[in-house]
Amino acid sequence: MRILYIDKYLLLCEKLPGVLSEASASEENMPFLLAEALRARGERGDVFPVHRLDRGVGGLMVFARDSVTAGKLSALIAAREMTKQYLCLVHGAPAEAEGEYRDLLFKDSGRNKTFVVKRMRRGVKEAVLTWRALSPARATPWGESSPILVTMGTGRSHQIRVQFSSRGMPLLGDGKYGGSDNGIGVALWSHRIAFTHPRTGKTVDVALPPPRVAPWDLFDGALPEEEK
Fold first, then answer.
1. Domain-located, residue 228
2. 225 belongs to a structural domain
3. Of 23, 29, 78, 168, which is the most buried if we count CB atoms within 10 A?
4. Nearest to 60 by CA among 114, 16, 118
């Protein structure tokens, strides 16, 4: 369990793909693993999730260490005052070097799948993100692919996956949304989280590059390497 930032109010850590973001009685999950890691350091093990990552997605997560901080972090997220950036690898190449995607999304909870829809109705939410291509498309074992840096405007379920897929650029490894389901896992990584600390007023800004394994290692030199 890699903890990249910690104080008495909150922490930022690495979630590995395949681990659940929230507590579960029967499966490996982040609150349990974090509590174990904190107690091994001689610290109290209380943690409070304030956001989630899809099970197959890895990268940075932020957790509160008390209920008051959890409420304040949740308020920051709701007010869109927390910067969240992701890295993804998409099939093909966008027509432009950067842009904004703005869609209406509907989540079918029964199927655990999100869809782009044409009009606002019950259960539909607006989804906004901006993106920038980090390099020209390259040939990979799964076809031509492009690395994209995404900055979230909203935080909807499966948002990045469905917004890029709806434009003919599904993520590598994302069989649910039209990508090649090739055993590498969904090529999506929570790369950077930044915000004003709700208890101290200081700036918290942490970045974590993806591991240098397939498919990320095919884009060495194109992906951000800094780790703050």
1. no
2. no
3. 29
4. 16
